Structures are given as C-alpha cells and as structure tokens.
Amino acid sequence: MERIYLDHAATSPIHKDVVQVMADSLKEFFGNPSSIHHYGREARRMLDDARETIATSIHAKSDEIVFTSGGTEADNLAIIGYAKRHRSQGTHLITVKTEHHGVLHACEHLERDGFDVTYLNVDEDGMIRMDELQAALRDDTILVSIMMANNETGVLLPIKEIGDLLKDHQAVFHTDAVQAIGKYPIHVDELHIDLLASSAHKFNGPNGVGFLYKRKGITLDPLTYGGEQERKTRAGTENVAGILGMAKALSIAIQDMHARSEQYEEFREQFLRILDENAIEYKLNGHKTERLNNVMNLSFEGMNVESILMNLDLSGVAVSSGSACTAGSVEPSHVLTAMFGNNDRSKSAVRFSFGLGNTIEQVIHAANAVVKTLERMNARR
User: Fold this and answer.
1) Which of 203, 225, 252 is the last residue of a domain?
2) Which candidate, 252, 360, 256, 350, places its Cα nearest to that of 295?
3) One domain, residues 49 and 166
4) Rounded average pLDDT over 77-100
5) Quick one: pLDDT at residue 1?
6) Domains in the chain: how many in total?
7) Average pLDDT over residues 132-141
8) What b/e string do you get for 316-351 counting C-beta neighbours within 10 Å, with b at 16 or more?
C-alpha cells in the first residue's frame, strides 16, 4: 500500500540536498563556533554564511538573525524578551485569538506577570478587522503579534496594512511566519516587520532549529543564560549542522516557491473537484483568496473527525485535524472556534496540506479515499 503524506503544515520531509549538507557538516564542521582555533573558525565561517543566506531570503541583514531551536522559542524570545525588556514603556500587548500556541501561551505567561493582553477577534474568513486593531492600540501598547499565515487554515493576514498602521506607534510588530516562509515572499522592510519567527521543519529542513529576525536596534531580555552566543541574545552552542541544513532548505524553497505554489493550487482544485463530482458535502474554512495554496481546511459536518482520520490512515493517507481528543471527547480547534464558535463545523474539520514529494496522482488517490471513507461512514449512520 502506498502511503501518502498530506500533513506538511505539521512538519515536512527533509529535502535530500539538505540531508547531504547536514551529513557533510557533521563530519567536517564539528568544532565549537566559539573556539578560536581552526576547527572553531571553520564552524563559525559556515554559520556566518548560513546567517547571510537566511537574512537574504527575507531581505534582512545578517546581524539581524538570531538562531533558535525552532518557531516556538523564536516566538517566546520575541514576545517575552521584548515585553520584559521594555516594561517601563508600557504593559499592553495585542495579538489574535487564532495565533499559534507558541504566541498565545507566551502572552498568557505575561498576563500572569502583570501585563495586559488584548486578543483580537476574527471573522468567519479568519481575518482580523483593521479598525478593531486600530481601536485596540493604546499609548502603553508596546508590542503587536499577528501571524503571517495561519497554520490550520492557511489564511494570510494583512501584514502590510498592520505594518503601515504601526509605523508611527511605539509598538513593535512581531509576526509568526512559520507557515509562510518559503511559500510566500517576505520583505521585512517593505512590510515594516520588527520581529519575525521561523522554523526549519516547515520548509523541508530539520526539526529542532529555527531563527528569529530582530530588527537592528531592538533589544530583548534573553530567555536562557550562559555564554554570549548570538550577540548575547540566545546562550548555548549553536546547532551547526541544523543551521546549515536550514539555510540550504530555505534557499531551495525560495528558488522553487513560485512553481510549487502553482502546483499546490492545481492539487487543491483537483481534490475539490473530485469531492464535488461525488456530491460530498463539505465547507471550506478560511478566506477564499488570501491564503497559502498548500493548506486546505475542510469541515464535514455531522461526521466524527477521529473516525475520518483513522479510516484515512488505514487507507494510507496521513492528514490532521485541529481537534484534540481529551478523555473521550473532542475539543474543537481554537482557530475554528474563533471563526465559527463551538459547533459542529469547528469539530468536524480536517486539514490537508501539500508539499515536497506529492504528485497529482497521490492527490487524486487521497481525494478518492476521502470519498470512500465518507460514503462508508454515511452508510453506517
């Protein structure tokens, strides 16, 4: 049985060229980048090259890139690090109810420390209202954190408009770009972004490594204490092999971005066409046009989402849901709950996400597997 992976928004397979780069680096660049001898200098040189590659991909400067263990740490470092360093300027933050938990839980931590956080609502398309953001801004607002692309629906938020709004305000603008980078063009100056989080495993790099873009002049309190790595922002010996793999993966993703986006749109259209031809009832969740092409979130109302996932897995198709099973009950995704409320649409959603290695034949097979699964489940009702 062929197994088909359609859960690239959760994590993505490592590109073969990235594996080679990492394997070579583990053999050749094993020195500690902080050491002054030959081996340390060679490792440092490779880190500097990787930093430049990553900075170029988002039109930043190399000294504005801080290496982290992934997107969650980058989000935490940006939000908690900035808030605690600049508490004297204000204690108010703004974010959105549909953010990744790496952002939401960081904000909740700050609330326990005396900060005030405004959580913006979204409409049924998953979009914020710019007038609500403007109304939420206060004189003591020091940070606004709004993701670039939602991890469950693929919805692209109005980052340019947000950046323009904040240009004349003291609040810095942080965005979680974990889902967007490598799939959507990013120019940090044109978008007026001050802090940006990313993670390698979302664009065919390794797990456990990511980066934070930190605009020059912005200061953060570190989350870890020890050495003076990453310009005293993030202590700990750098993961050289992982960072080199991340840089290689990102350069490939940027190079192939346009072609991949067109391919994923074709996958999406073919998948939905098969559902429509078989009269499958579904609702497409998220904005119709402001979205990533590789993420598709569908609700099959009246169906048990756990049964859908289990049956698809038995058919060799790996997908996911924003729901989590807790003590025998399904809790709906916080993203879909913010969009639609705590109802059947929120509880019956499945996320299909395309990526490296997928073919149109696999997409057709997967769509037909969904049809068979739902017809079988309907017959049992």
Assistant:
1) 252
2) 350
3) yes
4) 98
5) 81
6) 2
7) 98
8) ebbbbbbbeeeeeebebbbbbbbbbeeeebbbbbbb
Q: What is the pLDDT of residues 335-372, one digit of tens each?
A: 999 999 999 999 999 999 999 999 999 999 999 999 99
Which are the contacts of 95, defined by CB distance < 8 A and separation ≥ 6?
103, 104, 107, 117, 118, 119, 120, 144, 145, 146
Q: Judge if 60 and 174 occupy the same domain.
A: yes
Alpha helices in the chain (DSSP H): 16-28, 38-57, 71-85, 101-112, 130-136, 159-166, 229-232, 240-277, 305-314, 334-340, 344-347, 360-380
The three-state secondary structure class of 78 is helix
Do 106 and 49 lie in a common domain? yes
Domain end marker among 252, 276, 291: 252
Active-site positions read 325
Which residue do the tokens 């693929």 mark?
154
Residues 104 and 221 in one domain: yes
Q: Which domain holds residue 80?
A: 16-252
Contacts of 98 (CB under 8 A, 6+ apart): 122, 126, 147, 150, 152, 334, 335, 338, 339
20 vs 380, more confident: 20
For residue 330, what pLDDT is reported? 61
Quote the mean pLDDT of the chain: 95
Instruction: Tell me what percent of the residues of the chain surpass a pLDDT of 90.
Output: 94
Residues 338 and 374 in one domain: yes
Compute, in degrees rounded to 10, the torsion defined by CA atoms 358, 361, 367, 372: -130
Specify the DSSP class assigned to residue 19.
H
Residue 359's domain is classified under what CATH number?
3.90.1150.10
**93/199 same-domain check:** yes
Q: What is the pLDDT of residue 377?
A: 86
195 plus 167 within the same structural domain: yes
Closest by Cα among 347, 287, 335, 349 to 97: 335
The CATH number linked to 22 is 3.40.640.10
Q: What is the Cα–Cα distance from 210 to 71, expressed in whole angstroms?
A: 6
